[in-house]
Amino acid sequence: MKRVYNFSAGPSMLPLAVLEKAQKELPDYKDSGMSVMELSHRSGLFTDIITEAERLLRELMSIPDNYKVLFVQGGASQQFAMVPLNLMKNGKADYVNTGSWSKKAMKEANKYGQVNVIASSEEENFTFIPKIEADMIDPEADYVHITTNNTIEGTAFREIPDTGNVPLVADMSSNILSEDIDVSKFGIIYAGAQKNIGPAGLTVVIIREDLIGNASDICPTMLDY
Ligand SMILES: Cc1ncc(COP(=O)(O)O)c(C=O)c1O
Fold first, then answer.
1. What are the Aminotransferase class V domain coordinates in residue numbering (predicted)?
2. Can you name the residues that pair with 96 across neighbouring β-strands?
3. 185 is in which domain, residue-wise?
4. Given 65, 180, 195, 224, which residue is catalytic?
């Protein structure tokens, strides 16, 4: 067998041991007589899989009890819309423009409310991360959005900005689980799984409980956290 070394950001390589275990279990998952792909997504066996995945993620990231972990579809790109649809109560949010993915997040949010760019490195080709000071943040903003690792430009926040009472929302698609982070500093962390966690098709959202239940009237039911 010849395995390719794939160094691209994602979808990334999975450990061979994981692939081999999946291969071995595929025709008959845990004596169910069917593969994991054929199991009902509402069955007890599948509930066990998702419960264990959540338990492990909580352990790895020391996720506090007042945060929910959601496994959703639509990629990290869908969060560009879900975040404003769920959080924009005052209709405005602060964004830090540090690269191509931040710009995409801003473009989408702009459909649902006012996007204020409080700092940007675009004029210098996204070669640095601007420093975020407390007085740059609008206290009335519904949230502050950052992209913690700029996959295309190769820059990363080394210091998590203190946004006070304004919830900090972070796209961590390309650095989640690569370093210790203090989850309690964030209102929402989201990440597509395909870079640092697993195969494409799954998105992880870690959300502080008080931010759930405030979706705007136009938010589709399936996009309401
Ligand atoms: C920082 C960042 N955000 C968002 C995305 C988009 O993710 P998805 O393809 O899951 O929508 C990517 C990469 O694909 C990314 O690197």
1. 4-216
2. 119
3. 66-214
4. 195
